[in-house]
Structures are given as structure tokens and as C-alpha cells.
Amino acid sequence: MNVSTPDSKQLLQSSANAIDVKRIVYHAVTKWHLVVLSLLICLSIAYYKNRYTQKIYPVSASIIVKEKEETNGGAELLYKNTLIDQYRNYLNEPYILRSYPLVARAAEELQFTTSFFLEGRVITTEIYNGIPVKVTAIKTLPKAGSRYYFLILNDQQFSIRRADSEDKKDAVVFNFERPFTFDKRELLVSRIPESSLKENLNVTYLMVLRTPLQVAAEYVGKLNVKWAEKGAGVMNINLVGSNPEKEIDFINSLVRNYQSYDLEKKNQTADRTVTFIKGQLLSISDSLKLFERQLEAFKKTNRTAGDLGVDGQRMYGKVEGLEVQKTELLIKANYFSYLKKYIAESKNLDQIILPSAIGVNDPILSGLINNVINLQLEIKLYLDKEKSINPLVTSRMNRLTELKRDVLESVESLRSTDKIKLDFINKQIAEVEKQIGYLPLAQRQYISIQRNYSLLENLYVYLMQKKAEAEISKAANVSDLVTVNPPMVAGDAIVPKVSQNLMIAAIVGLAIPLLIFILIEYLNTRVQSKDDIEKFTTIPFIGGIGHKRTDVNLEVLNSPKSVIAESFRALRSNLNYFLGKQEKAVFLITSSISGEGKTFTSINLASVFSLSEKRTLIVGADMRKPKLFKDFNASNDVGLSSYLAGIADFETIIQKTKFKNLDLVSGGPVPPNPSELLLGKRMAEFMAAARQQYDYVVIDTPPLAIITDAFPLTEYADHTIFLVRQNYTPKELLKTAQDYYATGKLKNISIVFNDVYRYGPGYGYGYGYGYSYGYSYGYGKKGKNGYGYYSE
Questions:
Q1: 31-58 per-residue burial string, b: 16 or more CB within 10 A, e: under 16
Q2: CB 269 within 8 A of CB 353
Q3: Whole-angstrom distance, CA of residue 182 vs CA of residue 162
Q4: How many Å apart are CA 760 and CA 774, to the nearest integer?
Q5: How many CA atoms lie within 13 A of 568 on its CB side?
Q6: Is the dihedral angle over the CA atoms 293, 298, 303, 305 positive or is it negative?
Q7: Which end of the chain is more exposed for a tag (fewer CB within 10 A), N or C?
């Protein structure tokens, strides 16, 4: 009894699930034309993709943000001035450069709000600087169109129609240099001076109109700005687009506007300072003139009043020093009042006058004011209608409110400190004035007028000095942004990637048929080779039989020298190894399902025995579908069923064939109970008589997977031949045969691989006697009773 161990079962299961690589390679080699076709199709697709995809080019530039220490020489004094030496947050520079207002200003400067395209059969190409006209949007109403067909008719006229209109009659003719209204838009189309329209006549262009904000959104999305490396002052600007010339112009315009923005930001401080000082000078100039006239009048009236004496001169000098200190505190008080009012009422907090510009050198207040200015600038750059609820903007506005509160608290603190100082100075002045009261009347009057005049004069001179500093600073202002590398195309087009597309196409072109072959192999549930058999079962493999080329089953008898006849002789020799020295034997021929060549094998195996001068009997044990008699032109009136039913005796059912040593027992009339007849004692008597009179008995049985008639007959057989037909027998049924073999239901069994017509790696059975069965008649389903195929 054959027993299958757990290890052998696991090995069979793992090998059964494996895909035959050799068979897949064989498919690829034999069907090379499909592989080549797939490769050509994929390469063609890649070629057209490379040819008709809009090319995208990288454009890059570099700018440097100068640091304060980079200035030297005579300019150092000016650049150290607090009016222009402001705090710069370098981390904000990339964001400022990508801000919507700055990008929109550059787009408007280059008139990117109007684009012209030339529509082709496959792709649409933008025409940049190729049409010498300028389109100005005077007024745009809501829900206005944005895409139009534009046609230049002559030097004076052009036509325009909506892009969604297919009828050319919808086009409306207008004149250059004259405003017109079309599709809820008021436009002006003007010619560029000293340009010719000859090359553009009667060419239909697609005109696309967009708002500056829409253009800015596009460029902000594809503009990449970052520092060259950590700690460096160089920023790299990268941009990709289909028109390198256009992108280069855009970066140049963006950098120019960025430099203008930087210079405007610097000049704003000086301008605001000058304006503030002018207001202060205007308020004290009249008073200064009044006291100047009073002083001159007093000197004319009292010619000797100018001689104050030693005591008067000493007291005047003392009070003058105190008045200078008081003047500084008054200027600071005016600035604090301005600052408090400005923060409470103004929304443009980035225009605050810096404390240092007025002589307020408190580091805490200066730092807070700088933070307010920078934060207000960031909010301005990012705040617009579409982004008014941006969480980032909201958080920064909340931070700005906190900074305003901190500034006001700092101002109040400084005011309190200055008030203490002012009270102390006033007290000292009062003491000096008490001493002055002891001087003569004329000297007292002179000191009073001189004090007022000197106070205003010192204040006026101080403010004029600050005004001059602010104007000099403004005149010396230059942008801290300098172009290092001008915009240029940085290499070849990045889209399409020609080599990569061709490589991917080649890989896909090879992978598609390979995957198809793998899928075919994976979905193929039929046995193709000896390897397939060995993956599912441990039943010994005894040999193979090639594909027959006729519809006659008597292959060995009709063509004894054919390749198939030789395969049956080889099968006979292999069976001798199982029989040993046994002179007589009974062979049972069975399979899983019908159509696997049991009748064909039974007839031809019996034929090779008869040709070797051995008395041979063929028994048609398939009493449900008896047909063995047809190949010998015999009768089926009596047969095995007749004998088993007790209707006929052994000699009666034996039919002689026209071939020597070969007799036949057909199935006989179909009985109602074939299984019961095979289990009866008459079957044992039949087999005993057959063994006595014949050397070899070959039994043709029904398929095992359909009915169980073959199982009772196995006890009479010396050897069972289990047939597996190429590209016909389901692999799963081999598992059933393996179970029968493992449990001992089928003993002394071997497998014959039948109807082998496919050869090559992964196919056939590797016949070891030098015979080559090359009858490959193509693939396909086997038809019933078709020429060259088995029928059962």
C-alpha cells in the first residue's frame, strides 16, 4: 500500500502552485511576433508622446541680499544711519518674493493678463511676443468670458468671437485704437508702434484674458524660491514653463519689482520722518520769529542789557542747559503723542516713524516698532479678498494686536520716566528763576526773552539736523538686492523626458505580452507536460504517446512502423519492469474523465502484445457506453454484460478479429445495473477464464471521476494504466488520482501521458529513447469526433 507522507503532500502542494518559467519563456520565443508588435506599439505611443507633449523648460536665476557689514568706505556713515539700517528678517524674503501683490505687479508690467495661442491638430502653442498688439481691459463685468478667437483682418481692423461659438458669423469686427464693448468687457486693442501685421493677417488666434490675480496664482504655484544654502545670503529663483523667453522676462520683471519694493520700503522711513519734522518746524517757526523780534527790540531799547554780569551770565548758562534737556524731553513727548495716536487710528502700521529717527533710543521700543512694521508688511503681502480668512493671516493679525498693546505699554512706561525727569528739570529751573529774581529788572527781562528764544532755536536746529539726516539717507538709499546670475534656461526640457519615456515604453512593451503569458499560464488548468504531472502526484510515470494524425484508432495495426507504434512498443517494454518474469498479465486502462484516449490506448496496447505472438484479449468493460467493437467492425449484440447477466457463456461472447492473436469482448447491450454486475461472482469467473486462455488481457474501463465501475476491476488487474491527456486533463483531477493512490484504492498504477502534440521547454514529457514527436498542429480546443483527435 502506498502512503503519502505529510512532507510529500506539502512538497506537491508548493510545486503545484508554482508557475512554469520555462513554459512562459517558450511562449515568448515562439510568439516573438506578438512581443515585437507590443514593443512597436508602446514605442510608437512614446514617440508621439515625446513629439506632441508640450515641452517644459526650467529657468533659474540667483540674487543676493546684501548684509549691513558689506558696506564700507565713505558710505559707512550713511548706512549706519538708523533711518536706513533697519532690521531685516531674512527668513521672510522668499515669501515676500512669492507674494501675490509682487507677482501680480510683475505680470501686469509684462501684460501677461492677455495671452495668445495658436491651436494645432494635436497641441495648442502659446505665441509670446509674436503678435504686435496690446490688449487693455478697461472694464470687466461679472461673468464675463475669458476665451475668444482673435483674427486680424487688415492694418485697421480685427474680428473677435467667443471661443465656445463654432459659427464664424458670430465674429464682430472692431477697429484698432478704439475702445469697444464685447461680452461684458470693455477693451482697447492697440497696435505696437513701428510693427508690421503682415505675418499675422488672416490667422486665427485663441485669445485668453485673465485678471492679474489669476496670473499671480498661476506663477505663485510654480515659482520656487529658496536660499542657496543655510546661512548664505543668496536666493535661487526657479521657474518652469513652456516658453523659456516668457519665463525669463517674468523673472527679470519680478526681480526689478522686488528691488523697487525694497527701495520703497527704505524710503518710506525717511519720507515719514521728513514729513513729521516739517510739521514740527512749521509749528515752532512762527514762535521763533516772534521771540527773535522781541529780543532785537529789547536790545535796541536797553543797549546795556546785554551785559548780564558774572552772576547773570552764570545763572543764564545754568538755565540754558536745563532748557536744552527740557527741549529733548518735549520732542520725545510729541513723538509719544504721535505714536499713540497713530497706533490707535491708522491701519498702515508699516509707515510708523522709527523712534531712533527722532532721538528716542530705547531698544525695547525700537524692537517692538520693528516687529510691528515687519508683521504689518507680511499681512499686507498675504491679505487679499480670497485669503481674508486664511488661518495664517488671522494668527498674524492676532499677534499684531498683541504687539500694539505692548508698544502702548512701553510708551506709557517711557512717558512716566520722562515725566519724572521733566519734573526734576522744572524744579531746578524754578530754583534758578528764584535766583534770577534778585537781578536788576532789565537783566531779568533780557534773560526771559533770551531763554525763550534759545529754547526755540535749539529745538529748531535739532529738528533741522534730523531733517537733513533723513534727506541724506533717502538720497543714499539703494536696494540691498543684487542679481548674481541672470535668468537663463537651466538645461534641456524636463517634460517630456524623451529617454525615460522610451525606456518605460520598451519595458511596458515587453512586460505586457509577458504578463499575458504569465496570466495564460496561471489560468491554464490543464496538464501540459510531465512536469505538471509530477507537481500533482507521486504516481510513477511510465511513458508517453504522441498525437495521432488520423481518425482511426488502429494505429499500431495499420502503421506498425509509425512513431506512435514505437511509443506503444516502448510502453510495453516499460510495463515489463512492473511485471518482472510474469508470463501472463491483466492490464486495466482508466482515466479521470472521458475523452482522454482509453479506447485508443487499450486497442493499440493490445495490438503490440498480439504482434509479439501473444494471445491477447481486449475487454470493453465500459458497459454504459460500449463502442470498442466499432473499430473492429464487430457486433455488440452479445458481450460482457450478456455474460455477467448469465445470458451467454464465455465462448459465445468472444469475437475473433481479422488480426492474428487478437480477440475482442465488447461491452454488450447496456444493462440497467452495470456496477452490480461487475461486483458479481460471474466477473471473477470471467477473469479466471480469460487468464487461462490468453497471455494478456487489456480492460477498457469507464473514467474514475465520473463513475466507480473501474474500482471493482482493479482487484483483477496486475497493473493499472492511468491516462493523462495533454491540454485536456484538468490538473485538479490529478489530485483525485493522487488521493486514490495514497489511500491504496489504486494499486500497481502508473501514468501514461497521452496525445502529446506540444513540444518545447515546459511541454511534452522528455521521452528518453531518442524518439522525437514533433507533431505540433497548433493550439485550440479538441472537437468531438474531430479528425486527429480521440473520441470516447
A1: eeeebeebbeebbeebeeebeebebebb
A2: yes
A3: 9
A4: 9
A5: 27
A6: negative
A7: N
